Amino acid sequence: MANDNKNPKEKKPKFSPYWIYGIILSLFLVFTLFNNNTMDSGNSTNPTQFFKFVRDGDVSRVEIVNRRLAKVYLTKEAAQKEIHKKSKPTSFSLSAAQMPNYRFEFGELEIFQNKLNEIIDQENLDLEPVYITEENHLADFLIGILPFVLLIGVWIFIMRRMSGGAGGGAGGQIFNIGKSKAKLFDQNTEVKTTFKDVAGLEGAKEEVQEIVDFLKFPEKYTTLGGKIPKGALLVGPPGTGKTLLAKAVAGEAKVPFFSLSGSDFVEMFVGVGASRVRDLFKQAKEKSPSIIFIDEIDAIGRARGKNAMSGSNDERENTLNQLLTEMDGFGTNTNVIVMAATNRADILDKALMRAGRFDRQIFVDLPDVRERKEIFEVHLRPLKKEQGLDTDFLSKQTPGFSGADIANVCNEAALIAARNGKKAVDKQDFLDAVDRIIGGLEKKNKIITPSEKQAVAYHEAGHATISWMLEHAAPLVKVTIVPRGRSLGAAWYLPEERLIVRPEQMLDEMCAALGGRAAEKVIFNKISTGALSDLEKVTKQARAMVTIYGLSDKVGNLTYYDSSQSEYGFTKPYSEKTAELIDNEISDIIEEQYQRAIKILEENKDKLTELAEVLLEKEVIFKDNLEKIFGKRPFEKEERETLDK
Residue 386: pLDDT band by 50, 70, 90 thresholds? Predict the structure, then answer.
């Protein structure tokens, strides 16, 4: 009785692609069967035995079929011989009288004819070969349609693979290519990440926690007439925790959470991207209230109409248009909240960024020293670390590190400790991990000549001397001439984390960066290519001072930086005359700091030489070595002393 209530449509059998494969196999078997039958039966032999039968006078008739096959008919007397009794003809369609006793294939027809005629003449036989041309219409027909059947079968197989269908009807699975690829997280999916696992990011967490709170207790906001933001865009540098924050929302919200990447909408077929957007929002609305998270939204959210030279990607723009309509258009369901993440917000379309679509832009910045300490505490939990490990020290040793970088430091430290056979990860392992990540792998066996090693020592000693003598230069941590990565030596500093930077601070940093080349000039009266990275750094700083921050007296209080435009523009926002002025000003700033570095090193040449000799002897020196040679820093401040500790 229960079956009577079922929808009749559900009883309709689905078309299976295996039917196509069965048809192909059947056609092949039929072709093989009929091909064998039309060629007739008969025992196989070879030309050598055949010519022996001819000499013995056992052959009554020979038929040459299609210039490649010989059918041999024996005389009645020969058929009674013991040697031929096993050659009785059998067939599914012809009588025994019509069937040959033997059949074989030969090579070149002319050679076969000459040999046969030679034997007939020698033995004076009355035997004349008969030439026949046979046509197999059924086989020709099957051969003709077989490629088309194979093509259809292969096409169905490819479409099923592309649509991801493992079973069911092929007709329905083909159209699954337009279905959304979003991964659904709901009450049946265990997501272990919570806000407790997201260290730092207090402002960003507060914003997204409000979204989660609205989904749990909507009446708290709606009773006052408020509306929750329809979308939240997480913006920030790579590795700062944007995707981790979205995972925490999925773990905390307890509502259906659809997660996918912006590239999941992109497909080679026209209209697929827009179709997937429609299907995604349809699923989300059916399960509302729900959250959609699109990671790396810049894959489809680029500003439209800006690829004039190469031609715009219509498919990507159609996908973006559909996304804009679904987020805020006619019939928009306000119970679907869209979250997205990108590190390239400057290239996104303005229509996507407006209020009503992404009402909130949550900036996820690099963590400060306090937040880095919290992040270290999260990633140190699974590690077997030594007792009393100072997380304050670790956080101060990693300025500019993102959350992903800190996770990498902890993992590298554990690997280094395991490589050295330690039972716990200690402070030195973390310092080595920081060196490994910043500078690269240590190469102690790199071949370097004594003169090159001396040049590297004076170069690094020049950096250390200048940074020690200048007020606003970053305090030194250590100097090494052990090759790491692509560098032959390195000086490690601990820069202050400033919110604003003044011109004198930038000039001191540029002077310290040029200290290596200045030391080579002062000691050897020669310069080398070893200052490439230093020159690159100071050139960028000088250009930023002049063209971005307006810190040049000659150019004035102007900036040629436009935050709304891509940094890869093809036109300059200034004239050629101004470009010449900018180039001259950049050159003057760098040259002034270079001469300043030379002057400082010439005044402290003996101390520079002493420091380089210590570096050549020990290969690695620290702040204590500089204090023995130079004494206390002349501009030491209270907060700097705290930071150095």
Answer: confident
Q: Which residue type is seen at 48? A: T
Q: Which residues pair with 233 in a beta bridge?
A: 340, 361
**What tens digit of pLDDT does each residue of 430-473 get?**
888 888 888 777 776 677 788 888 888 899 889 888 988 888 88
Task: Could you list the residues known to form a binding site for ATP, using ranges.
Answer: 236-243
CATH class label, 450-644: mainly alpha
Of the listed ranges 159-163, 499-503, 529-533, the one predicted with least confidence: 159-163
Assess whether 460 carries a catalytic annotation.
yes
* Domain 369-439 class, CATH top level: mainly alpha
Sign of the C-alpha dihedral, residues 301, 305, 311, 312? positive
Interhelix angle 450-469/623-630, nearest 10 degrees: 70
For residue 289, cis peptide bond before it (omega within 30 degrees of 0): yes
Q: Which member of 207, 460, 520, 585 is catalytic?
A: 460
Q: Which residues are known binding-site members for Zn(2+)?
A: 459, 463, 534
What pLDDT score was predicted for residue 299?
A: 85
Q: Which residues contact 531 (CB under 8 A, 6 or more apart)?
A: 459, 514, 516, 517, 520
Map 197-248 to HEC letters: HCCCCHHHHHHHHHHHHHHHCCHHHHCCCCCCCCEEEEECCCCCCHHHHHHH
This prediction has a pTM of 0.64
Fold category of 183-363 in CATH: Rossmann fold (3.40.50)
Rounded to an integer, what is the distance from CA 457 to the centroid of its chain?
40
Domain ranges of the chain: 45-134, 183-363, 369-439, 450-644
Number of helices and strands in the chain (H, E): 26, 14
The annotation places the binding site at: 236-243, 459, 463, 534
Most confident of the following: 1-10, 94-103, 206-215? 206-215
CA dihedral sign, ordered 88, 93, 99, 102: negative
Tokens of residue 563, six digits: 């935050």
Q: Check pLDDT > 70 for residue 266.
A: yes
